[in-house]
Amino acid sequence: MVGYLIQRLLGVALTLLVAAALIFFLLDVLPGDPARFMLGINASDESLAALRQQLGLDQPAIIRFGQWLTGLMTGDLGMSASQRAPIAELILDRMQLSLPLAFGALVLSTLIGLPLGIFAAQHQGKPGDAGLMGLAQIGIAIPNFWFAMLLVVVFAVTLKWLPPGGFVPWAENPTAAFRALILPTIALALPQAAILARVMRTSLVDVARQDFIRTARAKGLSKSQALWRHGVRNALLPVLTIMGLQFAFLIAGTIIVENVFYLPGLGRLIFTAISARDLFVVRSALLVLVGLVVIIMFLVDLLYALVDPRLKKRATQ
């Protein structure tokens, strides 16, 4: 098992290194001069040269890349050119909102999607199955930003149950912070729950046709008992992959949803940094998002090893 973990951790490190290189060099070769953008078109050559030197833009790209990697490993990401604040502090502050939002949406989509998928598989071909899969298809087709605006109209504007946007820091008022994340979490979770329900239903229907399920039925178990005791675990294998990929979609979705609800999260930080052409913030925040996705996929690999006996045996060898 130790060898399996080391192999996966090396894969994580290599993936992050490649991602960092791609992010840095793609942003570094973008057209336009960040110094001229910040100072304006009427800035003098002397002012531009001074700012380029201050930001390190006068150095070769490979040197700047090495300095950025060193800063990532030490936690010193430099200063934001637009906000005049440490980038690490900006990212950590915004992650207090974005992480609960993304993980809350992942948990909620799992709690909704998996039971509905199992229920649909148990009632395959019946009205309940057709009705749930029809609703799931609608949930997949609806963009989360449109669904977010619909939730605001219904629950914030009409019913006035929840706030329409904004965020109160957790330290000031945890209840208000939690209430502010309810609608964004639902807006992110329900479309993903629809995907999970369809994948779980399809996977479990395929498993139900396997010989070991027929054997369990022949021993006296009902269809539901056979599926719950022997089918669900085997059906989870493709679902785990989808759940890992879903986290990437949830992270990307936070950029849109945070702007709909005016939440000061990591997605909104990236949006405002792009608008201000603050490439230092953009590249560090993007790498943090990539790192979160890579870590989730690493955890999915570990769950695979626990759920699939073949992988578990290989990991312990």
TrEMBL record:
GO terms for cellular component: plasma membrane
SUPFAM superfamilies attached to this UniProt entry: MetI-like
Compartments reported by the entry: Cell membrane
Its membrane topology: Multi-pass membrane protein
Boundaries of every ABC transmembrane type-1 domain copy: 95-298
UniProt superkingdom: Bacteria
Family the entry assigns: Belongs to the binding-protein-dependent transport system permease family.
Name recorded for this polypeptide: Glutathione transport system permease protein GsiC
